[in-house]
Amino acid sequence: MIRLFLLLAGVFGLTGVALGAFAAHGLKNRLAPEMLAVFQTGVQYQVYHALALLAVALLSLHMPGRLLSAAGGLFAVGILLFSGSLYLLTLTGVGKLGIITPFGGVAFLAGWLCLVFAAWNLRG
Q1: Is the pTM of this model over 0.90?
Q2: Measuring CA to CA, which residue among 4, 39, 3, 34 is closest to residue 18?
Q3: Number of domains the chain contains
Q4: In this structure, are residues 13 and 76 in contact, taking their beta carbons and an 8 Å threshold?
Q5: Residues 5-14, buried b or exposed e (16+ Cβ, 10 A)?
Q6: Which PANTHER family match (predicted)?
Q7: How many CA atoms lie less than 13 Å away from 89 in the CB half-sphere?
Q8: 13: which residues sit within 8 A by CB, 6+ positions away?
């Protein structure tokens, strides 16, 4: 799982930076300011959780377990659902895609909760 989480962290970090640059330069004059802000929210949460995936991968070297694996998986799902739905919403204008976004938010929260439980269960 460590390799997978490192790969996902790298891919999501890379694409997050690329999408942020795309929004700043390519979408600036094409989207309304409020839609550009929605896109940037997707970018921010993607990059935050790419870093969280990196942390999960590094923590897994010292304290492997199901809770850390669950946290990493939930962070990845959260990025796809939360950030992905915001990108699609802003680029397509299909408002119904906003229904998906909260599921990504719940995945993020569940991932952080798994991290809390993993820390709580540490001995020492």
Answers
A1: yes
A2: 39
A3: 1
A4: no
A5: bbebbeebbe
A6: TRANSMEMBRANE PROTEIN 256
A7: 22
A8: 47, 50, 51, 54
